[in-house]
Amino acid sequence: MTDTRAPAPSRALRRARVAVAACFFLNAVFYANLVPRLPQIKADLGLSNSSLGAALAALPLGALLAALSSAVLIRRFGSARVASTGLVLLGLALWTVAIAPNWGRSPPPCSSPGRSTR
Fold first, then answer.
1. In total, how many domains does the chain have?
2. What is the pLDDT of residues 35-56, one digit of tens each?
3. Which of 3, 6, 30, 64 would you label with 72, given CA atoms 20 to 30 Å apart?
4. Where are the transmembrane segments (predicted)?
5. Is residue 116 part of a domain?
6. pLDDT per residue over 96-110, tens digit each?
């Protein structure tokens, strides 16, 4: 009787699988954070339905452009560095969307604890 089971994956392969799963998980977390807030973002920025739709339609276009350049970047820097940098940039972009309604406003005045504001 012959053993037909596949050999156990190596440690490097298991680590790569976990890293890919983490990338997909973080991507889902970022978008799950953005999507429920779309009505608030639309209202805060004063966007019309068509302008919000155009902004949302730009997401797949950006993904397509990123995919076209990914082969060159991966060959030059490696897949781990490109994926990590991409997730950091995505996080920064979503953070920028979160603070966008406050760009034109000045920050509130700060006071030190224990100081009188008379």
1. 1
2. 888 898 888 888 899 998 998 8
3. 30
4. 12-32, 52-74, 86-104
5. no
6. 877 776 666 655 555
pLDDT digits (tens, 9 = 90+) for 64-81: 888 888 899 999 999 889
Residue 101 neighbours by CB under 8 Å, 6+ apart: 41, 44, 45
What would the DSSP string read from start to end of the chain? ----PPPPPPHHHHHHHHHHHHHHHHHHHHHHHHGGGHHHHHHHHT--HHHHHHHHHHHHHHHHHHHHHHHHHHHHH-HHHHHHHHHHHHHHHHHHHHHGGGTTSPPPPP--TT----
Whether 8 maps to a domain, the answer reads no
Specify if 112 maps to a domain.
no
Phi, psi of 103 (to 5 degrees): -60, -40
Tell me, yes or no, whether 23 lies in a domain: yes
Residue of 56, 22, 63 lying closest to 37 (CA atoms): 56
For residue 78, what are the domain limits? 13-101
- Cα gap 25→19, rounded to integer Å: 10
